[in-house]
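task queued by scheduler; priority normal; single chain, no ligands, no partner chains; default sampling; output format set to structure tokens
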Amino acid sequence: HLVITNGTKAHAVAGVMGGLESEVRDETTTILLEAAYFKGQTVRQASRDLGLRSESSTRFEKGLDPQRTKSAAERAAQLISIYAGGEVLSGTVEENHLETSMNVIHVSTERVNKVLGMSISKEDMIQIFNKLGFTVGESNDVLVVTVPSRRMDITIEEDLIEEVARLYGYDNIPSTLPATAGTVGGLTPYQVKRRKVRRFLEGAGLSQAITYSLTNQHKSTAFALNPAYKTRLSLPMS
């Protein structure tokens, strides 16, 4: 499990729970404020294995924006200054080994309308993406959408299409039946002849019965016109 240490001793389980020595007490006057980003999978594994649930672990498990770590620390320091009378020192110490970048997704208006079965204009799509805080560009009738890092759930063009449907309104999507190519039914020559024979025999007073005949070999020979005829099936059930 990932922990926060002073170089020799662990002081907190990263993203899950702080330690006894690092907690804030009534006599605390100096605070070292740490802001970090941890992968949700790592935090969830530690929280489950140790049986520790906290607001911190819940937030990390759902995913946080890695590009807002520094601004979150500055905001926390500002709140301490406003509501606790704290004196915030200038400057920060930063260690960053995480490479983050905006996710850029290409999607065409034709693709969006084909999936949704609608005819939404390109202008309406751009307006929807702008409402979400996405940056939109155009390249040969293709929308180039830059997704901010806070929306980790948007990774492929189908995710963008879902966002368009969600903000445009699911109730506005028309209900239609799928278009299928119909085929003309008919009987094969064998089926036609078979039905003619059946109607002729039924008209002559005959009827056909197919049953599972359970009998012995001696009785089955009584139905043979010639004792040499084979009257038993090798696989009667099939």
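post-processing summary
- The chain has a mean pLDDT of 87.
- The radius of gyration is 37 Å.
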